[in-house]
């Protein structure tokens, strides 16, 4: 055709080249359209858009305490988007949004020539909200030199299909639910909760402008890192709104004068409220989801399916518990380090440090490469910048792996579990001092010797097996099998004095606890412990009376709930239900409370009275004297051999809390009992928590709760002197006074000797 036209050869060749380029462009477009550069989602697929959504973890009152996600995304509906937020987005990102069908031809033409002719990959102004949505959903791939063109054409095709399927409001909703913000956050709701701790619907004009301004460059305009830069970008958004008549200029200027104030909440696994608890929830929910199927017969995914996990945790109590723990542990750590000085085991005991080194992943990797011990140690002495934990704030120093381990060995750790006794519902869970640096959860994972916190179980078994509260025992030391001779920690305990059970338990006399155990029978005590929910191994030896068995906080806490739950132990539980993103129930969980009491009501009242005496006049009196607590509280302190573990159990009518403090390495104990005893190491965490709760009316139902008075029958049983002088001649001739009857095997042997000496028959 061109040959028949009378045109010059130059024009002919120009037309041939132009038509060839158009043909090539058409072929190129066709290759993209038909998926030769990667499949483009069909209309049917776009109608079923499913994005990875974060699973939310909620406290008992619906507060968001954590999320599990690959991308931190939390979808909302169009009704939850404030009008000013929509206007800010349109004024800043796509002023002709309601006029085009997904592609703004004027802007796209400009970008096309900049990208193709000028090779300017940063050319802006052409991406509509719908084009950005296509990019947000499907991302971009690397196609080499033509990558930007291919990606933009693909996005244009997807954008047109989206506009055919969804109306403008639906597109805005999809966009806000998928757009990336700073700090690995996807979707406006997640960003709103993270940066301002409020739902999207509650955002102010200025806050919405901050988030929209962040979209231009999520890192550069991150208000957490670059607050001034973010504020300037916010002001640009406000002026854009004024420029396009969404705001009056006066209103925009007024908004610009406001300060940029964040209420930042990081929902990462390592930070934020209750990280140990959230990690335990993650483990449990993952196992639960393995047993559930969706309508398509597939398993749910905790990171993808946007589930909602409802828990029993009280977010206010959890916050106060973490504060109480940190305040106390900061002081206790200073006492601990000062008591050892330069003779600290983490400095002087080479075996402790070397064992710690051998247990590291770094050591194992070097060993797998064939290096011997000396070569590995040489490698691990090389320094590098390392972030180290400190109560004053983490610091980065040039240290070696060995230096780092030595640094962490000195730190004490802590665990605390607080539950509602009636149901076992967990209200606060503190697994350690800082999850970022100490991953080991001392609530669910750790088992430690429980010391004197086991004694109430011994006394409970004794009462259940017929022993009277006013039975008297001598504080005198007795040697048992294998030459074991338990002693009392208090030098004021008179070995020639007989004490009743209440005094013996409230002042935690070791000698009497073992005598009570032996008279009751070890098997009977173990049986009672099982009835109270203890499942761990319990050695059938006399020393079990002093808490040589290793238990975790969950089972010890569960056992103690029985004393304020009519004798029925409650197993701690913390997940109430799991829902899908639409609120449909997937699984629900009920409290696990023993169907029958583990002991009689009389025994319950007596032991609870004993533990109230522990607080009012026994080993836990600093709750009254030092911390000024006037609440109704029962409790029990515990300290293990060589001051390795400190324990405290605090009981109120509406709350049972168990705290533990010690070093992660069992070979490192407290330097002395003054520091390491449970009353000093563990009790203050509970005490500080109660102080904080007393100041908040939110906890009135717990802090104002009162124990019911004991029955007249129990009051009569408890009516006796706390101690009696051991009668010399009664010890010689085995008097019949039951209250002064010596019950240990050693004392029986002595009595038998004098009986035989004076011609009386020895009944034993």
From TrEMBL:
Pfam families: Transgly (PF00912), Transpeptidase (PF00905). It is found in: Cell membrane. InterPro entries: Beta-lactam/transpept-like, Glyco_trans_51, Glycosyltr_51/Transpeptidase, Lysozyme-like_dom_sf, PBP_transglycosylase, PCN-bd_Tpept. Residues 416-657 form the Penicillin-binding protein transpeptidase domain. Its main location: membrane. It catalyses: [GlcNAc-(1->4)-Mur2Ac(oyl-L-Ala-gamma-D-Glu-L-Lys-D-Ala-D-Ala)](n)-di-trans,octa-cis-undecaprenyl diphosphate + beta-D-GlcNAc-(1->4)-Mur2Ac(oyl-L-Ala-gamma-D-Glu-L-Lys-D-Ala-D-Ala)-di-trans,octa-cis-undecaprenyl diphosphate = [GlcNAc-(1->4)-Mur2Ac(oyl-L-Ala-gamma-D-Glu-L-Lys-D-Ala-D-Ala)](n+1)-di-trans,octa-cis-undecaprenyl diphosphate + di-trans,octa-cis-undecaprenyl diphosphate + H(+); Preferential cleavage: (Ac)2-L-Lys-D-Ala-|-D-Ala. Also transpeptidation of peptidyl-alanyl moieties that are N-acyl substituents of D-alanine. Keywords: Carboxypeptidase, Cell membrane, Cell shape, Cell wall biogenesis/degradation, Glycosyltransferase, Hydrolase, Membrane, Multifunctional enzyme, Peptidoglycan synthesis, Protease, Transferase. Residues 62-241 form the Glycosyl transferase family domain. The keyword Transmembrane helix does not apply. In the C-terminal section; belongs to the transpeptidase family. In the N-terminal section; belongs to the glycosyltransferase 51 family. This is Transglycosylase domain-containing protein. It comes from Autumnicola lenta. The lineage of its organism: Bacteria, Pseudomonadati, Bacteroidota, Flavobacteriia, Flavobacteriales.
């Amino acid at each position: 055709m061109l040959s028949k036209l009378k045109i010059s050869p130059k024009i002919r060749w120009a037309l041939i080249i132009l038509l060839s380029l158009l043909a090539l462009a058409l072929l190129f477009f066709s290759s993209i359209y038909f998926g030769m550069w990667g499949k483009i989602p069909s209309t049917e697929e776009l109608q079923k858009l499913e994005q990875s959504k974060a699973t939310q973890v909620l406290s008992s009152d619906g507060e968001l305490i954590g999320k599990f996600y690959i991308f931190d995304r939390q979808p909302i509906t169009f009704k939850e988007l404030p009008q000013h937020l929509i206007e800010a987005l349109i004024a800043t990102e796509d002023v002709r949004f309601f006029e085009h069908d997904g592609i703004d031809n004027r802007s796209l033409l400009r970008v096309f020539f900049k990208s193709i002719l000028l090779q300017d990959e940063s050319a802006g102004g052409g991406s509509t909200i719908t084009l950005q949505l296509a990019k947000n959903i499907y991302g971009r791939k690397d196609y080499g030199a033509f990558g930007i063109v291919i990606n933009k054409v693909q996005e244009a095709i997807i954008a047109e299909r989206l506009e055919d399927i969804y109306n403008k409001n639906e597109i805005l909703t999809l966009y806000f639910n998928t757009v990336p913000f700073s700090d690995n956050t996807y979707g406006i709701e997640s960003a709103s909760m993270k940066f301002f701790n409020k739902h999207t619907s509650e955002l102010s004009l200025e806050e919405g402008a901050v988030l929209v301004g962040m979209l231009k460059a999520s890192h550069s305009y991150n208000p957490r890192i670059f607050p001034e830069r973010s504020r300037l970008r916010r002001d640009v958004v406000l002026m854009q709104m004024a420029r396009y008549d969404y705001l009056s200029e006066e209103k925009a200027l007024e908004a610009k004068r406001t300060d940029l104030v964040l209420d930042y909440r990081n929902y990462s696994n390592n930070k934020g409220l209750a990280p140990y608890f959230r990690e335990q929830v993650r483990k449990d929910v993952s196992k639960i989801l393995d047993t559930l199927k969706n309508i398509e017969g597939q398993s749910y995914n905790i990171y993808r399916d946007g589930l909602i996990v409802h828990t029993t945790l009280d977010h206010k109590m959890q916050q106060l518990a973490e504060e109480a723990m940190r305040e106390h542990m900061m002081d206790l750590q200073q006492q601990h380090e000062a008591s050892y000085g330069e003779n600290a085991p983490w400095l002087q005991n080479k075996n402790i440090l070397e064992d710690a080194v051998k247990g590291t992943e770094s050591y194992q990797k070097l060993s797998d490469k064939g290096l011997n011990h000396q070569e590995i140690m040489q490698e691990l002495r090389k320094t590098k910048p390392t972030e180290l934990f400190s109560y004053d704030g983490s610091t980065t120093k040039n240290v070696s792996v060995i230096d780092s381990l030595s640094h962490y060995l000195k730190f004490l750790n802590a665990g605390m579990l607080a539950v509602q006794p009636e149901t076992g519902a967990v209200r606060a869970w503190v697994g350690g001092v800082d999850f970022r640096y100490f991953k080991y959860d001392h609530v669910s994972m750790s088992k430690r010797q429980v010391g004197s916190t086991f004694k109430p179980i011994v006394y409970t078994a004794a009462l259940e097996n017929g022993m009277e509260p006013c039975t008297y025992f001598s504080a005198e030391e007795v040697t048992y099998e294998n030459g074991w001779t338990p002693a009392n920690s208090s030098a004021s305990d008179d070995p020639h004095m007989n004490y009743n059970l209440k005094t013996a338990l409230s002042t935690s006399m070791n000698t009497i606890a073992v005598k009570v155990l032996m008279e009751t029978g070890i098997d009977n005590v173990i049986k009672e412990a099982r009835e109270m929910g203890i499942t761990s191994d319990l050695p059938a030896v006399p020393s079990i009376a002093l808490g040589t068995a290793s238990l975790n906080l969950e089972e010890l806490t569960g056992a103690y709930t029985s004393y304020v739950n009519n004798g029925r132990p409650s197993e701690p539980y913390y997940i109430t239900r799991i829902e899908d993103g639409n609120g449909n129930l997937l699984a629900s969980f009920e409290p696990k409370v023993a169907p029958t009491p583990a002991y009689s009501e009389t025994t319950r009242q007596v032991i609870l009275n004993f533990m109230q005496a522990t607080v009012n006049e026994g080993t836990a009196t600093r709750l009254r004297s030092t911390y000024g607590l006037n609440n109704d509280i029962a409790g029990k302190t515990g300290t293990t051999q060589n001051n390795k573990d400190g324990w405290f159990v605090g009981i109120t009518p509406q709350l049972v809390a168990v705290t533990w403090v010690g070093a992660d390495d069992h070979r490192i104990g407290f330097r002395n009992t003054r520091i390491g005893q449970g009353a000093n190491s563990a009790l203050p965490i509970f005490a500080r928590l109660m102080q904080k709760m007393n100041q908040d009316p939110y906890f009135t139902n717990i802090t104002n709760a009162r124990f019911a008075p004991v029955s007249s029958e129990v009051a009569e049983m408890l009516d006796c002197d706390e101690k009696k002088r051991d009668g010399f001649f009664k010890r010689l001739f085995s008097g019949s006074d039951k209250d002064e009857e010596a019950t240990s095997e050693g004392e029986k042997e002595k009595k038998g000797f004098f009986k035989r000496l004076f011609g009386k028959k020895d009944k034993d």
